[in-house]
Amino acid sequence: MTTDISVPAAGPSPAAPASPTSRRRPSSGSSLGRYVLVRFLLMIPTVLILVTVVFFLIRLTGDPITAALGGRLPADQLAQRIHEAGYDRPILVQYFEYLGQILTFNFGTTITDRQPVVDVLVTYGGATLELVCYALIVAFAVGIPFGMIAAAKRDRWPDAALRVSAILFYATPVFFSGLVAKLIFSVWLGWLPVSGRANVRTEVALNRSGGTGIYLIDAIATGNPVYIQDVLLHAVLPALTLGLLTAGIFLRLVRTNVIGTYNMPYIDAARSRGVREGRLVRKHAYRPALIPIITVIGLQIALMLGGAVLTETTFEWKGLGFQLAAYLSARDFVAVQGIVAMIAIIVALTNFIVDIVAAFIDPRVRY
After folding, report:
1. d(CA 150, CA 142)
2. Which end of the chain is more exposed for a tag (fewer CB within 10 A), N or C?
């Protein structure tokens, strides 16, 4: 008796169904590219909304010519100036024309001194940029190390003292802290200059040589240590006044995030190996705590640009904030509108760059 055993024909075996884990996932590069694209596209409506709000708020006061020159010109000359500027046309026509001008980086012409707003931004923007850089250095130098100390000494008196100091830094108005700093360090002690970016001799020398408009760079370019020292001494009080405002925020952020990382398994593993608490803070816990600071830098720069108006006015630091206050006093709303619109664009670009840097540092930041 024979048994018939059938052998299957040779050929390719059917493919096994793909498991869920074998499905192709989007690569990290494509995810990052999509994130960059989305962030860039979101920047456009942000700037548009800010520019629109500023435009219509300015127009609530009437046309800028009447606001600046009303009562100082005869009625016929005032009407002629209004017609030449196009402020007698429908408001929507003016709005869309202004948007078209912004696309070509034309922010109008100031009424009081008849110069393009772009020239004002170029002339005084370097001073504001220099002040913001100084203030960021102060904020990092104070906020990060003292935030780490507060975390290492948590729930003890150094932690309590630093937290109270952070609240005071953030809550104290910039103009008040500036006036107090001038009274103590300039009037009573005589250690630092009262106001300005440099003394008259240094300003004449730096302006004669041209340069970038950033006095520290221009002073270094001259190679004269007297100019460098003079510029740095004039920058101390404005930088401290504006920088401590943001240092309080950084201090609390670093403290909170360093304490949060203490609950991570790798911290427990390092502690079990006998790593000291101070080294845990310096070598293991502080790096994750820096990521939230990077993400809020853009917002803090916006805060600094707002605080720069009061800081520059208090210390007669002739930057965009100082000029903005002067144009507000003169009711030159064309200049105010142009400067505020440009600041809005700068803040939006800064937030975009900071978000991209944060995405490179932390792979979890994705859409």
Report:
1. 12
2. N
